[in-house]
Amino acid sequence: MRGWWREIAGLVFPAECAGCGRARTGLCEECRAAVCGAGVRKVRADPVPEGLPEVWAAAGYADEVRAVLLAHKERGVTGLARPLGEALAGAVRAVAPGGVMLLVPVPSARRAVAVRGHDAIRRITLVAARELRRDGIRARAAAVLRQGRAVADQSGLSARERLENLSGAVTGRPGSGRLLKAAPVVLVDDLMTTGASLVAAARAVEAVGGRVAGAAVVAGPRDETQGGRLGV
Predict the structure, then answer these.
(1) CA separation for the pair 67, 65 (Å, rounded)
(2) What is the DSSP letter of 23?
(3) Rg over CA atoms, the chain
(4) 3-class DSSP assignment, residue 57
(5) Which band of pLDDT confidence, cut at 50, 70 and 90, is reported for residue 224?
(6) pTM summary value
(7) Is 188:106 a contact under the CB 8 Å cutoff?
(8) Domains of the chain
(9) Where are the alpha helices (DSSP H) in the chain?
(10) Angle at CA 57, nearest 5°, toward 39 and 48?
(11) Is the sign of the CA dihedral 198, 204, 207, 208 positive or negative?
């Protein structure tokens, strides 16, 4: 029983920092700063796909940030959801600094969620919404989009191929239209690379009459020159 508990605890609160591997800490101060304190900035894909909303990222996708995101999503280190959600909340504030908003996560493939054993994006979206409400922002998380058909693995595909792969694949869940039209939508994801997933999600929202205010991600392209920079 004691060994089983140590194994489970290691997934939720790893003995080593998920970013740099430093012993006896789930996420050290330096890596937390890299994720949450790097400064929110506007990012874009290269090339920019048609239909991509304005995207804000909390950090660049490299080094410790990449390691933390992979540990949470692929290794199921669920204790990292809180710092990642806090970072995401900072990016959301840049998209829509106040008022009522609906945080809509970009849906993952059902097969991927089943293999991982958890929905990583939905988890950090819930944390981000709680963080925003704590600051007096009326934010609600709603996983109202889904992948309506099977898609190929996006890894290894070019930007154009990713757009084609996801074209028409993301749809609103039954009955989601009223909710999506009730408040400005901020699309959220853990990572933006080519922007194909955000484009597909934006089209799904707009197809039912919703308005996309912008998109927020934990990490985006590291080398960006466009847009300003805000403190998280």
Answers:
(1) 5
(2) B
(3) 17
(4) strand
(5) very low
(6) 0.84
(7) yes
(8) 2-227 (3.40.50)
(9) 2-12, 29-36, 63-73, 81-95, 110-116, 120-134, 159-166, 177-182, 196-207
(10) 135
(11) negative
